[in-house]
Amino acid sequence: MSHNKVKKLLKKNGLRLDDRKLDELRSIKIEIGVIEKASGSAYIEWGKNKIMAAIYGPREVHPRRLSLTNKALVRCRYHMTPFSTEDRKRPAPSRREVELSKVIATAVEPIIFTELYPRTGIDIFIEVLESDGGTRCAALTVTSLALADAGIPLKDLVAACAAGKIDGQIVLDMNGIEDQIGEADLPIAITPRNKEITLLQMDGILTQEEFKKALNLAIEGCKKIYDIQKEALRSKYTIVKEETEKIKEEE
Amino acid sequence: MQYLVEKRQLVIPGELLAEGDYKSGKNTYQEENRVYSSLIGLANHIGKNVFVVAIKTGYMPIVGDLVIGKVIDMKLSGWIIDINAPYSAILFTSDAFDRSFNARKDEMSDFLKVGDLIFAKVNAFDRTRDPILTIRDQGLGKVNRGRVIKITSTKIPRLIGRKGSMVNMVKRETGCQITIGQNGIVLVSGKNPELEALAILAIRTIEKDAHTLGLTDKISKLLKREERKEIKQ
């Protein structure tokens, strides 16, 4: 693979391979309400990642015995399309995909008022169309927007972002190459309003100081992500709001 | 003590609406003395009561709602009805038959089969049990003819209009009978398929342009223009 030839992840001028600064995010583009038949949906382009999320529900749970008597069941299926990676990925769910499905479901559950919909299920489907490092963060970010679009009562949104270590430096939002040959990766997700961490995973080795530094950097990244999320939600619905205002005036 | 957003401002989940001595109303929640929004919608307050008017939500049954549902299963005690909500509803056999139902003599499918549509009222519902429907009221019961269309349940008030002005106009212009279920299902039945198609076109336009200016005039013009076309043909 071509990646093995790359040894240095930082250029001489201190920038990364894609000309980003150490604490710079990749470009992010979000669209809301892309799947008509779903209760709610959203699409994100985060650097080279392209991810689509769809929400179905609250609806009846099948099989019935899985339903919970006191709250809604949140289920998630994270799936990478066969053409999303450099080499073809076999379409059957891999160990990694099963893990990410579980981790994403538990990371978004705290923001949903599940107790309002007992005995029902909320199904999340995430399809990765193109991947380039940090898909779990992008998937979580887009999932919380799709939940908001579905009209499901939420306490807050979830913003996710990763930090890591490359060439001895702590950096924000690692891409595919940095993730593969970098020294450490620390994806986190927070509820921005009260700064609760709903996801924290780590791959690689960091000292305690490095960990603290990376965690703080990732939290800063999440805040930037949150601003982008708010902007995306507002811009979709502002038009609707302006038009309703006109109607009120007319009446 | 402070109300933080403007009246009718667009808010998103988790946005702080008011702080201090305020009450958390519809689509909001409270943490200590702060009120937050839980949905995308337009924030508003009447006195101390802070609430959010949702832009898009699913249908949640309320006792007394008139709904249109589809029979999806038959059980000994009654029919299971899909009412476009998180829970499927039940219509008891005792409700459908005037006399007491006898499983040996009476055949349930003589009255309603799987796939049939009914216009019914939500008789009882709380989240611990599935909604119970009744057809014992005037105008309720099996739907025998007409076409069914599904629209977003939040747009039902716009379709009805002020004191039914919008839907009455469509009825008058097309001569169709229009039955609106609070769950977002609308039934249209007219004298001929052309008039039904016209009414459906009008309803679809109302759904699509629910937020635009001068909708009543627009629909009125649309209906008259289409009718003239028909006469020419």
Helix content of chain B: 10-25%
Structural class of chain A: alpha+beta
Name the largest protein-protein interface in this structure: A-B, 41 and 28 residues
CATH class placement of the largest domain in chain B: Alpha Beta
Order of helices and strands of chain B: EEEEEEEEEEEHHEEEEHHEEHH
Unreliable stretches of chain A (pLDDT < 50, length at least 5) are none
The CATH homologous superfamily of the largest domain in chain B is named: K Homology domain, type 1
Query: How many domain units of chain A?
Result: 1
| Largest beta-sheet characterization of chain B | 5 strands, mixed, barrel
The spatial strand order of the largest sheet of chain B comes to: 9-10-11-13-12
Mean pLDDT of chain A: 92
- Oligomeric state of this protein: heterodimer
> Strand share of the residues of chain A?
25-35%
Helix coverage percent of chain A: 25-40%
The low-confidence runs of chain B, each spanning 5 or more residues with pLDDT under 50, are none
Keywords for this entry:
heterodimer, A: 251 residues, alpha+beta, Ribosomal Protein S5, domain 2, five-stranded mixed beta sheet, five-stranded antiparallel beta sheet, 31% helix, globular, B: 233 residues, OB fold (Dihydrolipoamide Acetyltransferase, E2P), Ribosomal Protein S8, Chain: A, domain 1, 3 domains, five-stranded mixed barrel, four-stranded antiparallel beta sheet, 17 strands, 34% strand, flat
Structural features, described:
The complex is a heterodimer of chains A (251) and B (233). In chain A, helix 1 packs across helix 2 (135-149) and helix 2 (135-149) packs parallel to helix 4. In chain A, strand 8 (184-191) and strand 9 form a beta hairpin. The longest helix of chain A is centred in the C-terminal third of the chain and has 43 residues, at 208-250. By secondary structure, chain A is of the alpha+beta class. Chain A has helices spanning 95-108, 135-149, 176-181, 208-250, and strands at 28-32, 40-46, 49-60, 73-80, 120-130, 159-166, 169-172, 184-191, 196-200, 203-204. Helix content of chain A is 31%, strand content 28%. In chain A, the strands form two sheets. Chain A has a five-stranded mixed beta sheet with strand order 1-2-3-5-4. Chain A has one domain: GHMP Kinase, N-terminal domain (Ribosomal Protein S5, domain 2), CATH 3.30.230.70. Chain A is globular, with a radius of gyration of 19 Å. Chain A contains four helices and ten strands, in the order E-E-E-E-H-E-H-E-E-H-E-E-E-H. Chain B is α+β, with helices and mostly antiparallel strands and 233 residues long. Chain B folds into three domains: 2-54, RNA polymerase II/Efflux pump adaptor protein, barrel-sandwich hybrid domain (OB fold (Dihydrolipoamide Acetyltransferase, E2P), Beta Barrel); 66-143, Beta Barrel (OB fold (Dihydrolipoamide Acetyltransferase, E2P)), CATH 2.40.50.140; 147-232, Ribosomal Protein S8, Chain: A, domain 1 (2-Layer Sandwich). Helix content of chain B is 24%, strand content 34%. Chain B has six helices and 17 strands. In chain B, the strands form four sheets. A five-stranded mixed β-barrel of chain B has the order 9-10-11-13-12. In chain B, helix 4 packs parallel to helix 6 and helix 5 (193-208) packs antiparallel against helix 6. The radius of gyration of chain B is 22 Å and the shape is flat. Chains A and B meet through strand 3 and helix 4 of A and loops of B.
